[in-house]
Amino acid sequence: MKIAVIQVAYGEGADESVEERAARVAGLVRTHGAGHDLVVLPELWSAGGFAAREWEARSQSLSGAALPPALAPLAEAARHTGAVLHAGSVVERTDEPGPQGRHLWNTSVLLGPDGEVLETYRKVHRFGFGAGEPRLMEAGEELVVTDLPAPADGLVTGLSTCYDLRFPELYRRLVDLGAELFLVPAAWPEPRIEAWRLLLRARAIEDQCFVVACNTAGEHAGQRMGGRSAVISPTGEVLAEAGTGEEVLSVDIDPALVRTVRAGFPVLDDRRL
Length: 273
Hints:
The chain has six helices and 14 strands. It is an alpha/beta fold. Residues 1-255 form the CN hydrolase domain. Keywords: Hydrolase.
């Protein structure tokens, strides 16, 4: 399976409209996604991971027949490349409020090579310690595991987002649901980037899964983003890692490696709790 991880950067384009940024990112997918089976984008690239004041204005409805402005160009890019596209996450806006009375969610969207929505995942763990996401967004309650379609078929895939990475119990639940690959879009800031790098390897090692993690780069809303997107093997080997600017990783992985590693070192069979 050939994977492209597109580490999108903010910078001079930090004031782009949703439509302008979507067109730019779709261009990156068209340019760098060709010849890949799976393409992955970062968290909240259209709204800004720390730009909470802009979330309402940049929110997107996923309930209509047509895709919203942040996703429609990406669906076209997926069709152009013929790849499965993890479109990162958007600020989803719903007509009906959630349990806490809010209308916004941090929602990841997985698109098929035909541009149709395959899965959505609402982020379970909201970052902000009472501010930011917990103040403005609802928390997701459902875990999502899916069989990726061709051309990216071969690995059962669990979806998660950014701050979820700090909660190992979520990933163990995904493994119990059959996951062999974790996709992790993120907006992880530079001051805590060493935690990001360590936790990616930890989730891969303890669950014997591939981890494909796509972070943002550049600076927005006063926060310097950390970059360091990565692809990690089920043994914890770093197969590829980006720097701190806009960058694309292109990595070939062998789906059979998960089963080989789990059979050769069956640590998951020894769980007691």
